[in-house]
Design goal:
Layout (H helix, E strand, L loop, with lengths): L2 H15 L2 E2 L9 H6 L17 H13 L3 E5 L2 H16 L3 E3 L5 H4 L4 H4 L4 E3 L10 H5 L7 E5 L12 H13 L3 E6 L6 H4 L3 H5 L4 E5 L10 E5 L1 H13 L8 H13 L4 H21 L6 E3 L7 E6 L3 H15 L1 E2 L5 E2 L6 E6 L9 H13 L2
Parallel strand pairs: 1-11, 3-4, 3-5, 5-6, 6-7
Antiparallel strand pairs: 2-8, 7-8, 9-10, 10-13, 12-13
Helix pairs in contact: 1-14, 3-12, 4-11, 13-15, 14-15
Pfam families: Beta_elim_lyase (PF01212)
Cofactor: pyridoxal 5'-phosphate
Protein name: Threonine aldolase
């Protein structure tokens, strides 16, 4: 067993037995716990076949929430988004997609946009922030689709302001381009924008949303848009191997997330802002020479913390804190683009709502003491 394997085991054990945590770790759930969350409202309802029944009910619910004509369930967000961008390329006659280089298709999909779908990308900016309307307007070549990741996860879960978002969409329209939102985490953006979901989604021609990133579902995603776009996407879904025989477990967990987690997301955002502020206070008074909370006031219920230490050292300190005090503050750290600096992501969900400012201070001080 490697040192990393041992650390992973310790992380899982500490997370499962912790007295306090900001959010459960994805690897900590057991099969029994996940199955317990799949109780059907009507246990006599027939199981779906290739996406009818409960899956179709989920699709109608998503379309209604986003104010779109229709929505289609996909086994993964990667597939949903690949197909959306491919459809738009065919409809606009332009295979070029303008998007941020830190967006999901560029970082986490193995070059599939070009290798699988024959698309090409251009970048309005390379800075770790949302692009501006001016940068979209000034792109040197035509593009068929502007894709905006809302929020931009790898830059710190960053959102533009509502006025900036309207301007970005307007700039794309001026370039005769369509607009697609990568809304994997769009559900929790309503607090920052001060707008309901349907108004936010209504700015775009199509929107992809995830069922597990914020809603706690097993897996799966949906693509929403016009009836004609979604009908075309369903054809491509079959071609891509996404016409799965049974999908009711994912659909049931997604519906449970829409019922249970979606209404609570604004409270998670508010608590994340408290936690971020309390962390900044504790770190500023502690022994660390430098830190960064990114963004300083979180746009969603997730944000980054940067510290000038090696990732293994920071992860070990977090594991020891959990093992010795029962409080999970940080989990895994990763090397940042800056040498000698590491970064981690913090998420606040239901378990984190019980934390007080003083408890965050205490956990942060105990963490830095273990460095």
């Amino acid at each position: 067993m490697t040192d990393d394997d041992d650390l992973t085991k310790r992380l899982l054990a500490a997370g499962r037995t912790a007295d306090r945590t900001l959010s459960p770790g994805a690897r900590e759930a057991t099969v029994a716990e996940l199955l317990a969350g799949l109780a059907a409202p009507d246990p006599d309802e027939p199981a779906d076949l290739y996406g009818d029944g409960v899956v179709a009910r989920l699709e109608r619910r998503v379309a209604e929430l986003l104010g779109m004509e229709d929505a289609a369930f996909f086994p993964s967000g990667t597939m949903a988004q690949q197909i959306a961008l491919r459809c738009w390329a065919g409809r606009t006659g332009n295979p070029v997609v303008a998007l941020h280089p830190m967006s999901h298709p560029e970082l986490w999909e193995g070059g599939a946009l070009s290798l699988v779908s024959g698309l090409r990308t251009v970048h309005p900016t390379t800075d770790p922030r949302q692009p501006t309307a001016e940068e979209v307007a000034d792109l040197a070549e035509p593009f068929g689709t502007l894709m905006l990741e809302l929020p931009l996860r790898d830059a710190g879960f960053l959102l533009p302001s509502w006025e900036e978002l309207e301007a970005l969409v307007g700039a794309a329209r001026e370039r005769d381009a369509v607009v697609h939102f990568d809304g994997a985490r769009l559900w929790e953006s309503t607090v920052h924008f001060g707008r309901p979901l349907e108004e936010i989604a209504g700015l775009a021609d199509s929107v992809y949303v995830s069922f597990y990133k914020s809603l706690g579902g097993l897996s799966g995603a949906a693509l929403a848009g016009s009836s004609s776009l979604v009908a075309e996407a369903r054809v491509w879904r079959h071609r891509y191997g996404g016409q799965v025989f049974r999908q009711f477990p994912q659909a049931l967990s997604a519906l449970a997330g829409l019922d249970g987690e979606l209404p609570r997301l604004p409270s998670y955002v508010a608590q994340a802002r408290m936690v971020a502020g309390a962390l900044a206070e504790a770190l500023a008074d502690g022994p660390v020479p430098w830190f960064r909370i990114n963004p300083e006031t979180p746009h969603t219920h997730q944000f980054q913390v940067w510290l000038p230490y090696g990732a293994d050292r920071l992860t070990e300190a977090g594991v020891r804190l959990a093992e010795e005090t029962g409080a999970v503050l940080f989990r895994r750290w990763s090397p940042a683009p800056v040498p000698g600096v590491s970064v981690t992501e913090l998420t606040v969900t239901a378990p984190g709502l019980t934390w007080t400012r003083e408890e965050v201070h205490e956990a942060a001080r105990a963490f830095t003491a273990r460095l």
